[in-house]
């Protein structure tokens, strides 16, 4: 486990100093995705004094457009922390990120725990555990010298670009539209930069949530009541510059806005 902790410390140090991460030293780079997740969990413990407690997860690479863009053919998970969950309308300094980007997402809040002992989970099963949905902006950060060269294990170790989220108004499950048909639009400074539908997220966002619950269960971990899960981007990542205002509009769920000053 020493190499796991050494990798986590190297990533934590880069994050705290906002220094773009180069490839990890050969003797600590995670050898496979399973070890990448071990490093990620060690990183979460190291980061909590700075970003608060773990309040949920993000799921990356859930749509064809994102799998093609990142060149990873399956979903990947990362953590979401208390101090980087924001309300719609937030203004955030662009200088707090190495290179900030945004994604258009459907987020869910869990009404109950999904314990590892309940696995395997299906989309229908996890749907029953949701109490609300949100239009969401996932904030991502390209905090790498060249992410294309790092490989999935290292990107997973560093929470797969996760840098927080912005949530709109909660929509109770009883009022939820057909998520497959929900169209999402990413609008930057009044100009549409991407669009997609809920069906682009593994066929249905609930499939992504089931993937996460099953993935965590293999490691003896569960999801907990009150946690937020970002189910994956409907659009290709939009990279921003200081001064940009972003609005994500999701039909039937509402809209969510943020400005990066």
């Amino acid at each position: 486990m020493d190499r796991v902790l050494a990798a986590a410390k190297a990533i934590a140090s880069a994050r705290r100093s906002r220094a773009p991460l180069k490839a990890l030293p050969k003797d600590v780079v995670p050898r496979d995705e399973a070890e990448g997740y071990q490093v990620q969990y060690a990183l979460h413990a190291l980061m909590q004094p700075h970003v608060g407690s773990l309040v949920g997860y993000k799921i990356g690479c859930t749509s064809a457009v994102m799998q093609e863009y990142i060149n990873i053919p399956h979903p990947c998970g990362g953590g979401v922390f208390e101090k980087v969950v924001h309300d719609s309308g937030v203004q955030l300094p662009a200088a707090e990120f190495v290179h900030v980007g945004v994604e258009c997402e459907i987020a869910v809040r869990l009404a109950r725990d999904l314990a590892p002992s309940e696995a395997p989970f299906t989309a229908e099963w996890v749907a029953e555990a949701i109490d609300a949905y949100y239009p969401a902006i996932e904030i991502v950060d390209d905090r790498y010298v060249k992410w294309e060269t790092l490989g999935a294990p290292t990107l997973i170790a560093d929470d797969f670009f996760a840098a927080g989220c912005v949530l709109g108004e909660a929509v109770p499950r009883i009022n939820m539209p057909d998520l497959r048909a929900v169209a999402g639009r990413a609008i930057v400074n009044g100009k549409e930069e991407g669009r997609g539908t809920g069906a682009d997220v593994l066929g249905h966002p609930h499939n992504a949530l089931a993937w996460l619950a099953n993935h965590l269960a293999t490691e003896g971990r569960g999801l907990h009541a009150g946690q937020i899960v970002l189910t994956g981007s409907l659009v290709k990542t939009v990279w921003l510059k200081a001064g940009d205002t972003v609005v994500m509009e999701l039909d039937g769920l509402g809209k969510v806005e943020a400005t990066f000053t």
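Helices lie at 2-17, 33-51, 64-70, 123-127, 152-157, 205-218. The two ends are 40 Å apart (CA to CA).
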